[in-house]
Design goal:
binds S-adenosylmethionine, two-stranded parallel ribbon, six-stranded mixed sheet
Length: 222
Amino acid sequence: MTFDPFPADPLADPAATAAAHPGLRHAPATARNREPIRTALAELLPAGDCCVLEIASGSGEHALWMARCLPQVRWMPSEATSEGLAAVQAWRALCPELATRVLPPVLIDAARPPWPGVSVDAVFAANLTHIAPWSATLGLVAGAAARLRAGGLLLIYGPFNEADGFTGPGNAAFDADLRMRNPEWGLRDRAAVDAEASRHGLVALPARVMPADNRLLIYRRT
Ligand SMILES: C[S@@+](CC[C@H](N)C(=O)[O-])C[C@H]1O[C@@H](n2cnc3c(N)ncnc32)[C@H](O)[C@@H]1O
């Protein structure tokens, strides 16, 4: 196999793209979970033009993949720090054909709602709730409720505990590791997120079971 330092499609093999661009942030998990997430979003988002605000975009790889695969979507990435914004911007610059539908990332700290801006059809966050203090989840729910149009969706992807505890042995080990790294981190109980959503006028729809013991929590603004 030959090594292509400037792949024509930067999203085809994100690891190769990252290898060719030193300093580019790359989250290997996004290449594994982007298709299951894309499939769910394709079923859940409106078929016509719609606007999705992403909280905690990380590398920005989800933003670009979803915008490419879901042509009706305008994706608004965000991050909590200026370094985070630069990381998203670096990936965005590699895909100029998506520049009109993946907007420049904006600074949003999930834990500090309300976040100023226009109403959106959906708020999406992946892998935030367990790698941030609980205040980030509280803020995510409150902030989303304030930005969603009536009928809009809050979609939260990641590992969550169900009533009977961890959904798999991998998640138990992951939780222990997270709590060792930061005592304020850790997997959240889905029921606790549901309760918080309900306080903000968001109705819980059945959560989707996703690969690798993940969930997609789905809430609709009344
Ligand atoms: C594990 S990464 C997930 C990134 C991306 N969503 C993904 O799935 O690859 C967690 C991200 O949450 C962001 N983050 C942590 N606390 C945050 C907060 N209070 N508000 C917004 N983003 C936050 C971090 O900067 C980091 O990019």
